[in-house]
Every structure is written in C-alpha cells, then in structure tokens.
Amino acid sequence: MRERQTVQLVRRARDFESFVAGAAGRLLHAATLLTAEPADDNPRARRLLTAALSRTYAAWDRLHGEDPYTYARQQLAYRFLMMSWRLREGRGGVLGMLSPQERLVLVLRVHESVAEEQTAALLGLPMERVRTLCFRAMSLVLAGESGALRLTSTETVRGVERVRP
C-alpha cells in the first residue's frame, strides 16, 4: 500500500514538472504583463506565478479532465486581482498606464486569447463590462502616453461605448 502511494506521488510530481516546463514561460510572460514590470526585472510577476502554480499543484489531483493551463491561468488572474488591491500605483511599460482590471482583461483577451464569455465568467463581470474594459484598454494603449484620448463624448461601435475627443 505504501509503495503504491509513493509511486502515485512520484508520478504526480513528474506530471506537474512537465506541465511547468511547458507552461511556465507563457504564464510568466502573462504575469509580467499583468504587473507591468520590465521582463528582466519582475519580482512581483514571479511571486504571482509561484502562488498560482502552488495552487495548481495543490489541486493537481482534482483536475482529472480539465486543462491544467486553464486552471493555472485562472489562479493567476485570481491572485493578480487579490494583489492589485494593494498595488494602486502606476507601473512602467506599455500597460503601466492601465488600471489593474483593464490590464487583466486586456491580457486575458488579447495575449491569452480567452473568449469574452469565459473572461466575464472568470472575473464575475457582465460581458458588456468586459467588452468595454477591453476596448478602453486597447484605446489607451494605442493612443500611447500622449494623452490623445480624452473623455468628452461617446459613440457606440459594435455595442461598445467608444470615447471620442
């Protein structure tokens, strides 16, 4: 009995290690985008990834038919939301000017290619809110730091409020 448990633990550890070897780079890049830190100096992103992977490892046996990458990404999003309450200051980088919620929606929708419905369900937001956050974040990123986008009037484009100068 004890030998079988040992074999199962070794197999579990080996499976998780192979998952981390394949997915950690992409998850670290997503975490770096979320924290808006430079790619070569990202201690918050690394802590965020470590927390998400530790939760994934804890739930590894319960992930029978699920995709572990989806679960790890979900944990990354949850951990970032919890952490973002403490990190209100702006960060550097292209996404540094965005709010934490805008960064999260933009990274999930654009970088991770998560569907709008899945993003809304993951964050507990209505789909219209996710659509608006994504559009606003993209507008701010594309406008750059020049401040070319001003909040004065609105028009609707594909069901999303679009801000115009």
Task: Characterise the protein shown here.
The protein contains six helices and two strands; from the N terminus they run H-H-H-H-H-H-E-E. It has 165 residues and is mainly alpha-helical. Strands 1-2 form a two-stranded antiparallel sheet. Strand 1 and strand 2 form a beta hairpin.
List keywords for this structure.
disordered C terminus, 165 residues, 2 strands, mainly alpha
In short:
The chain has 165 residues and is mainly alpha-helical. It is built from six helices and two strands, in the order H-H-H-H-H-H-E-E.
Average residue pLDDT: 82
Rg over CA atoms: 19 Å
Percent of residues in helices: 55-70%
- The termini sit apart by 71 Å
Low-confidence stretches: 146-165
Q: How do the helices and strands follow one another from N- to C-terminus?
A: HHHHHHEE
* Beta strand %: 5-15%
- Shape annotation: elongated
